[in-house]
Fold:
Amino acid sequence: MNGEEMCGCPGSKMQDFRKDTKGGEEEGGTRQSQLRQWPIQLHLVSPQAPYYQKADVLLSADCVAFSVGDFHKDYLKGKSIAIACPKLDEGQDVYIEKIKSFIDDAKINTLTVMTMQVPCCAGLVAMARQALQSAKRKIPIKSIVVSLQGDVLSEDWV
Amino acid sequence: MEKYLNVSIKEIIGKFPEVGRILEEYKIGCVPCTLGSCLLKDVVGIHNLPADQEAQLLYRIEKAIYPKRNVKRPEGKALTCKAPVGNIKYSPPIKRLVDEHIVIKQWLELIPSVLEEIDIESEAGMRWISDSLDFVRFYADKFHHAKEEDILFGYTDKNLDIIKTILRDHETARGHVKATSEAVKSKDKEAIVQHLSAYKDLLKEHIKKEDEILYPWIDRGLSTRQVGELFAKFDEAEARIDKGMIEQCEKFAHEAEEKVRKIKKRRQQNEW
Structure:
């Protein structure tokens, strides 16, 4: 292990996947987007929006959709979404209040939190837990952690 | 082999007892099952064994049924490999039911010790039986079994043998409670002991069946949407129930656990 590896933040450490990335066979046709709303950034969305009412909501770290090849088909389909970065975004206390409002006001059915495996990403799950703790309603929360190359590492109800 | 895949497990174990022993090795507890009407193919499928272990299990069952047949041995790990026993992860609504089982088991554990020395002529003895019957009727049946029957099983096919077996257990348990209640009225100590003991044996096996087989199987079939729905429906059902009674029952079960500890300690001291 060299000095750079020891001191670098895993979230911003440079890694080159070009040799590992399997392109696979060229796929024909086009795939339908499963996004059913706009906006999606957590600061911009409103829990009052109709697509959040009683919905299954996906709270995804920004990087997840770029990492998981079948993000739309396997994780976004049938859900309303909000995205955030627990490392770089400011005003995270507003995030907690907003997630709490999803639970209490929009009366969402479930919350699935998708994060990358890097340590700083766990902050998003912590925010969801904190919001749930302070909310009046209780709902099931699922945490899905994906690797930098898009494999699902764990999928657990928290 | 196709023929036997569609035969009830009780009939197969009756004809080929070795099959029962093999199933036990894989932690599939069909031998003590009261009904045994599940088909062999469902028994194997519902336990969700890893593919290599399922192939080995079927190979061994086929060899037990047809010892002379030249059955192709599956490739993979050792044939004696047992099913892994790890921590089962439940979805939040199912976990609630598992937690309720823990409360019920606290009380079940106390039954043998109490029955050994119960005095039905004493006020304390009769109070314990009466409190126990209240606990069973309210907590185990009205609070817990009702959530399964009225809500959870709606997410399954109620005609499946595993569900029929579970429902039959509930009915048998209710029968023991009724019989215990009647025995209390007639002060028939033997019948009280007999029915409470039978209730305890039935429920212990029943809970194990649900925790290890039924619930994980139902959980595997639930979508995220259904998990949320189930959670909300349990909330609604619990909101209709007297919270004070639930707390009282949980306290009663917790005290039962304390009593078991004290009885065991006292008996150990007496042995010394």
Observations:
- Residues 92-271 of chain B form a domain with the Four Helix Bundle (Hemerythrin (Met), subunit A) fold (CATH 1.20.120.520).
- The interface with chain A takes residues 89-93, 95, 224-225, 227-229, 231-232, 235 of chain B (CB under 8 Å).
- The CA atoms of residues 187 and 193 of chain B lie 11 Å apart.
